[in-house]
Amino acid sequence: MNDTDTAETSAGPAAAGEAPGRADMARILRMIPHRYPFLLVDEVRDIRKGVSAVGIKNVTANEPHFTGHFPGEPIMPGVLIVEALAQTAAVLVVDTLEMEGQDLLVYFMTLDKGRFRQRGVPGDRLELHTKILRGRGKIWKFWGEAKVDGKVAAEAEYSAMIVMPDHHSRQGG
């Protein structure tokens, strides 16, 4: 997807001249269900409703996956980089739909055109560039690029389903 492509969403494109939004950690926690150790975004900035956002993941040596991937040469697993892209996309959708604080669940549905081009290691700052390709109702499709120092580390096209939780079934009753 290039900069001239436009997203097709039910929310429509961001209003011209509207300042991009931002989500700090406290706001992210109100927007998506993920929690440590599986919350993989530290901040989301440049949120343009219905269009795009940029997540930030500061890769640190104390993350649990580094004990086994790989001892002596820690590398962030590519699938976790893609998950971080998906979490950034979830924040973008919740912001677009103005559904913060509604306990939405996000289910990964597809992953296509995935490419891993550069390693993510402790000390790196991943910039998670996410664009909406399509969004209608519950089903959303995205293009994402994770960058380290301006170079693409991973990229993928992916889709997710956004649903309201069924609190009764989640609590066993």
CATH architecture: Roll
Structurally, how many domains make up the residues? Answer: 1
* Main β sheet profile: 8 strands, mixed
The percentage helix is: 10-25%
The tally of helices reads: 3
CATH superfamily: Hotdog Thioesterase
Name the structural class: alpha+beta
Can you write the helix and strand succession as a string? EEHEEHEEEEH
Portion of residues in beta strands equals 35-45%
Identify low-pLDDT runs.
1-6, 168-173
| Overall pLDDT score | 89
The dominant shape is globular
Account of the 3D structure:
The protein is an alpha+beta fold. The chain has one domain (19-170): Hotdog Thioesterase (Thiol Ester Dehydrase, Chain A, Roll). The chain has 3 helices and 8 strands, in the order E-E-H-E-E-H-E-E-E-E-H. It has helices at residues 25-31, 78-97, 167-170, and strands at residues 8-9, 21-23, 43-48, 52-58, 105-116, 125-136, 139-148, 151-163. Strands 1, 2, 3, 4, 5, 6, 7 and 8 form an 8-stranded mixed β-sheet that branches. It is globular and about 45 Å long. The model is unreliable at 1-6 and 168-173 (pLDDT under 50).
List the main descriptive attributes of the protein structure presented here.
173 residues; alpha+beta; Thiol Ester Dehydrase, Chain A; eight-stranded mixed beta sheet; 3 helices; disordered N terminus; disordered C terminus
Topology:
Blueprint: E1 8-9, E2 21-23, H1 25-31, E3 43-48, E4 52-58, H2 78-97, E5 105-116, E6 125-136, E7 139-148, E8 151-163, H3 167-170
